[in-house]
Specification:
The chain has 168 residues and is mostly helical. It folds into two domains: 11-117, Cyclin A, domain 1 (Orthogonal Bundle); 131-168, no CATH class. It contains six helices and two strands, in the order αααααββα. It has helices at residues 14-31, 34-49, 60-74, 88-95, 99-112, 151-159, and strands spanning 136-139, 142-145. Strands 1-2 form a two-stranded antiparallel sheet. Strand 1 and strand 2 (142-145) form a beta hairpin. Helix 1 runs antiparallel to helix 2. The protein is globular. The two termini are 17 Å apart.
Length: 168
């Protein structure tokens, strides 16, 4: 995987980081799970490390909701067929913010952190097998599921950091 997950934040952003993760951890512990909590901490820390950090302006609850929405969007959190799911309106109500505000922050976060369902950096490890998008790569202009190619090719693609692991 390309990205090194870290919760390290600059000293100047520590208070804001703690304020936001207090909100996200509480929400994830009550409504989601530890895996979502961990990935929201990674995302918030990554945003804290941006120069300048977008988190330095705005309310903690708005950023907390936006980060959960962004991670949730990438991992299909709002799909009722998923084991862990929640209605998007419930998310906004929980943080007492407007739908447009939550969606706007989520879009900003997804753009800054380059989050999308095909990027294994932001797909929860428990979702790898269920997310065919992270296994799709362009090979000579043709989109292919890398799991269908010979093991040697899979190993090379893994070495390049394009897939999270070599499927067995």
């Amino acid at each position: 995987m390309k990205q090194n997950k870290s919760e390290n934040v600059p000293k100047i952003m520590e208070d804001k980081y703690l304020e936001i993760i207090n909100l996200t951890d509480t929400f994830c512990n009550e409504k989601l799970n530890e895996e979502y909590a961990q990935f929201t901490r990674y995302a918030i820390a990554a945003l804290c490390r941006k120069r300048p950090s977008p988190l330095s302006k705005g309310k903690a609850k708005t950023w907390a909701c936006g980060v959960i929405h962004a991670i949730g969007t990438v991992n299909f959190l709002f799909d009722k067929s998923q084991e862990v799911h929640i209605g998007v309106s419930e998310l906004y109500v929980n943080f007492d913010i407007a739908k447009s505000t939550g969606q706007s922050k989520s879009k900003i976060i997804r753009g800054l952190l380059k989050m999308h369902p095909t990027d294994s950096d932001w797909v929860l490890p428990s979702k790898y097998e269920d997310n065919p998008m992270i296994w799709m790569l362009s090979v000579n202009g043709l989109i292919m599921d890398i799991r269908d190619l010979p093991i040697e090719v899979q190993e090379e693609v893994f070495e390049r950091g394009l897939i999270p692991y070599v499927p067995v």
